[in-house]
Amino acid sequence: MLIQLNTDNHIDGRDPVLRQVATDLEQSLTRFAAEITRVEVHFQDANAHKAGDSDKRCLLEARLRGHDPLAVSHSAATLTVAYQGARDKLVKLLARHDEKHRAEGRRVAADSGELLR
After folding, report:
1. Contact predicate 87/23, CB 8 Å
2. At how many degrees (to 10) do helices 79-116 and 16-28 cross?
3. Can you give the pLDDT at residue 108?
4. 3-class secondary structure, 3
5. Cβ neighbours around 80 below 10 Å, total
6. Is the pLDDT score of 4 beyond 80?
7. Once rounded to an integer, what is the mean pLDDT over residues 19-33?
8. Is the pLDDT of residue 17 over 90?
9. Residue 94: which of 44, 42, 57, 39 has the closest Cα?
10. What is the sign of the dihedral through the CA atoms of 22, 28, 34 and 39?
């Protein structure tokens, strides 16, 4: 699983928070690693140099083998909270996606089993 970090012009790519993102994502997405080819992480500071309650945004886009990409975002006052919120949303979305496709697989197997009888 490749993890690609992107920032806008207002976020320092050398920020220590960003260094921890790849490690944390690998750990958080371990159970989905076989299906994920790449995760793109986009950090954005919506208000640039102005302060604000939810001006930091993290967008996570997971690219899955044989499926359309899944994307989530979260805005917060800090990069850390924005990332954590987006990460939690992505884990939940991937779990739902995985369960949906497993259920479809069981349904297809059951349907094909009926045809073979």
Report:
1. no
2. 20
3. 56
4. strand
5. 16
6. yes
7. 94
8. no
9. 39
10. negative
Task: Please tell me whether the overall predicted TM-score, pTM, comes out greater than 0.70 for this model.
Answer: yes
Separation between Cα atoms, residue 48 and residue 2, nearest integer Å:
28
Q: H-helix or E-strand containing 73? A: strand 70-76
Cα 117 to Cα 28, 52, 69, 111, 113: the distances in Å are 43, 64, 37, 10, 7
pLDDT above 80 for 1: yes
In tens, the pLDDT along 59-93 reads 999 999 999 999 999 999 999 999 999 999 999 99
- 58: how many CB neighbours lie within 10 A of its CB? 25
**Contact indicator for 61, 3 with CB cutoff of 8 Å:** no
54 touches 75 (CB < 8 A): yes
50: tokens are 């102005």
Is the Cα dihedral 2, 75, 70, 11 positive or negative? Answer: negative
pLDDT of residue 117: 40
CA 77 to chain centre: 19
